[in-house]
Specification:
Length: 255
């Protein structure tokens, strides 16, 4: 509501705000449990003095929980009935809801004289069903196409084209997601390897420097062998630097 008012003020330079009647259309699986009055969401509102309440925003909103409405209770034009019955069933009836919605939509769309409008609306409906109802399989889609061919021929081509398009979109999205995850994983591994390599090289330098300081210049062969050691062994050599009495004590970790 605030966003609508702000938009009106900015774009139309209004001095007064338009009336907004808030309406919630709900179609979830569970019953709507939230309060329909703002005052019931504000802690201690009922205990406030009346001269304080006048400064606290309060309003109620209309709630239409269409998941509880029957087909007979949903009235209006074909498009409206299709919309309400479809969103009512898509979550509560899963796969069966899709079949029921398609059957009803076909019956309602036959009421429309403008076949072009009916076909366009049918495409919107099918796109919504295919994208929301994840329980539909390729076998279900094939059955839907066959059923529509006999009951609503105008929509059969729409469904076949849309199903193929959505399949391609799904493949592209899957490929994109796979590439993104692969790149992300590769970068993480690369970073880990880079950090580990940097730490290992630092340990090599430290080990050679400490041993040189204690025993004098090291033979090139020994330095070469030290540079091939893993991080764990290098760490052990560095930690024991004060305990070595000769290079022989170090060589036992190298050979």
């Amino acid at each position: 509501m605030i966003e609508i008012w702000e938009s009106k003020v900015r774009k139309e330079q209004l001095n007064k705000l338009p009336i907004i009647i808030p309406l919630v259309i709900y179609h979830g699986k569970e019953r709507w449990k939230a309060s329909t009055a703002l005052k019931e969401m504000i802690t201690g509102y009922d205990k406030l003095a009346e001269d304080v309440k006048i400064y606290i925003p309060n309003y109620e909103y209309l709630l239409y929980d269409i998941s509880r409405f029957t087909d007979e209770e949903i009235k209006g034009k074909a498009q409206l009935k299709i919309f309400f019955t479809t969103v009512r069933d898509i979550f509560t009836k899963s796969g069966k809801g899709a079949w029921d919605s398609i059957d009803r939509a076909i019956a309602y769309l036959k009421e429309l004289e403008d076949k072009q409008t009916a076909t366009e609306y049918f495409e919107t409906l099918m796109r919504y069903i295919f994208s929301v109802d994840k329980s539909l399989t390729s076998s279900d889609v094939s059955k839907i196409v066959k059923k529509i061919e006999t009951t609503y021929p105008e929509g059969s081509e729409v469904v076949m084209t849309l199903a193929e398009k959505l399949r391609e979109e799904g493949l592209k999205e899957g490929l994109k997601e796979g590439l993104e995850k692969g790149l992300e994983k590769g970068m993480e591994k690369g970073l880990e390897k880079g950090l580990e390599k940097g730490k290992r090289e630092e340990r090599i330098t430290t080990a050679i420097k400490l041993l040189t300081k204690k025993f004098g210049p090291l033979p090139e062969e020994l330095k070469s062998k030290i540079s091939k050691l893993d991080s764990v062994t290098l760490e052990i050599i560095i930690d024991g630097i004060f305990d070595y009495e000769s290079l022989d004590d170090v060589k036992k970790y190298i050979n």
